[in-house]
Specification:
Elements (H helix, E strand, L loop, with lengths): L7 E2 L2 E2 H11 L3 E3 H8 L3 H13 L3 E3 L8 E4 L1 H7 L9 H19 L10
Antiparallel strand pairs: 1-2, 3-5, 4-5
Length: about 120
């Protein structure tokens, strides 16, 4: 999953949501954690939670032991691990690989080295 720094979810910067999910991991997080992380009121936090539930990013505590707590879904965990990197174009990847293979050949040509790269 790729995100852009100006993406938003329920009006909140996606990076705040990603960081909340990253901190929670596969554990639970509360509405209070949402309020603190996003700097929003309880009502706004509840709106964000509803939007995240609608997008299948979170579920209420599956064991129903902690009302007001939520668990990230597999989609939420993908968002937690999302990075803001551009994809490497095929041409650039081919050049990087060719440069690497050239260095491998140079290393393998040196008899004084103890190891050989296969």
């Amino acid at each position: 999953m790729r995100i852009k720094k100006d993406d938003k979810l329920a009006g909140q910067p996606i990076l705040q949501i990603r960081d909340l999910f990253h901190e929670a991991g596969s554990g639970l997080f509360s509405i209070k954690a949402m309020m603190d992380k996003c700097g929003v009121s309880k009502q706004k936090a509840l709106n964000i939670i509803r939007e995240m539930e609608a997008q299948d990013l979170i579920d209420p505590d599956p064991e129903k032991l902690n009302p007001g707590f939520y668990k990230t879904t597999s989609a939420g965990l993908r968002l937690a691990n999302a990075r803001m990197v551009k994809p490497v174009m095929r041409e650039k990847a081919d050049k990087l690989f060719a440069d690497f293979m050239k260095r491998v050949e140079e290393v393998n040509a040196r008899d004084e080295l103890a190891y050989y790269v296969e």
